[in-house]
Every structure is written in C-alpha cells, then in structure tokens.
Amino acid sequence: MKKTLVLGASDNPARYSFRAVHQLKQHGHEVVPVGIRKGQVAGLAIHTDRPAAADVDTVTLYVGPQNQPAWYDYILDLNPKRIIFNPGTENAELERLAQQRGIQTEEACTLVMLSIGQY
C-alpha cells in the first residue's frame, strides 16, 4: 500500500480532502493528514506543522496554487514518488520543480483514481 500525505486535510465532511483521507484508509493506505486547523479525520489527528514522514509514496494536494509556495521545500524534501494535483491545485512551477527532482506529477483526482482502481 502507498503511504500518502494529504496536504490540505480537513475535518469538514464537505471537503474533498476529508473524503480522500477516508477513502485512502478504506483502500488500506497509510495516511498522514496535514492541514492548517487541528482536528481529526478518519480517526487520525490532523498535523498542523510539517511532520517528518519517511517513505512517502504520494503527496496529494488539496491546497490552492496561491498557498503552495510556503510548502514547496517541505513537499520536495519528503521526496515522494509522485505528487497528485487534484482539480484546482494545478501549479506548473511546483510540477517543474518536482520533475527536476525525479518526482512524478499527475493532474488527477485522488477520489476518482481510487474508485477506478488506478491509484
């Protein structure tokens, strides 16, 4: 299973990041939720700092491109195998930086990928 860091995690059931954490767990993936507000989602505490996380396979983004620059170093230093840019999070600059480090990037929807077995 793929250890996934969900950046932009929320305890609000109306948010796609909330659904993503639940679906990732249901599919057996280890999830590290990171957000701007403390809370819990799918029984996991939402980290409001930049937790050290080893062996991250995927970072899935739920943070808009205007708020991503503050996270660039953190995301890239995790050295994930891939970054998923969910709808509304597309960012050519971060994609270029990731690809320069050999990190695969995908403009896709984590929820759809999970539902069709393409995660």
Automatic annotation (TrEMBL):
Gene3D superfamilies: NAD(P)-binding Rossmann-like Domain
CoA-binding domain location: 2-114
One of the Pfam families matching this protein, by short name: CoA_binding_2
Residue spans crossing the bilayer: none
Protein name: CoA-binding protein
Organism classification: Bacteria, Pseudomonadati, Bacteroidota, Cytophagia, Cytophagales
